[in-house]
């Protein structure tokens, strides 16, 4: 959490809340907010606007960046060594405060730890994410927010379940990790599942509405992004099918219904395990994050909200940070404008989603590679232009 306040004129300053997501590949959300603030404060130095009170509040959509947003809002970072998607150790950080733990599955089981190839797609697992959940429970978590996105695996959350006490056996004993191994799954013993989960609220922060299996399922839709070829996708889907069958045989009566429902296919099927075994409730990711970071309290009394992300495009209209921020700001009666690396949206499409205007870096520098490399300085320049348009009419006394 960062606050930047310019020297004050007599009277109340104009209040601006900067609530962006990251610019993927160039700036983290907190860096975006800091550069926007720097651009706006130039206007105070120049006398173009009166006093500004700027509140920087990094946001995420429930995927990568969610832990960083929670930490920026006052949660404590907790670093743990866990099992990576291919079995080696990785250092992962989650956020904790007042009995709430915020976990990103990508921090333990993400694509960043693997090569996107057929072998990795078959063998990657989610055991490390389960270890993060277990660690949080050991340290008093009563509510766990599980942010998904960027998964390396298609194991249906079987690894997560194993880390939390389920025993999976194959023809030769305990089953190894990865979605491909699930084709050899003989039986599941659910008796060892951590009993603390029955009294712990688990929130699955996800906008993915795919089911677990079939042509719209986790393997078919997302397996290719993880390096799986057509044969691997078919094998992974077969493994997930067997995983659902084995859980049903083990007495998890709702497994088949959950597998067919929305969200089960999130994060290679980790959504399925969270919903079927951990009793999770699924909520839109950006809504969960806005609640965690106290957005409603921070936006109250604000004159303008500035949000943004690297590419503001049609995909942004479906559960991404800028639209979620704009909706929450509109509910508080506060207008929203955006910054972006680039945008493909018309002014009409933006207004339909609560964003009055967008200021892309490409309006100053058409070359996208240069925008990525020089994102910070360009963001300050474009934010100064934004401020001249939206703040100069708000000088104190006017």
UniProtKB/TrEMBL annotation:
GO molecular function, one term: kinase activity
PANTHER family given in the database record: GLYCERATE KINASE
Protein name stated in the entry: Glycerate kinase
Transmembrane segments: none
Key words, A-Z: Kinase, Transferase
InterPro entries, A to Z: Glyc_kinase_flavodox-like_fold, Glycerate_kinase, Glycerate_kinase_RE-like, Glycerate_kinase_sf
Similarity comment text for this entry: Belongs to the glycerate kinase type-1 family.
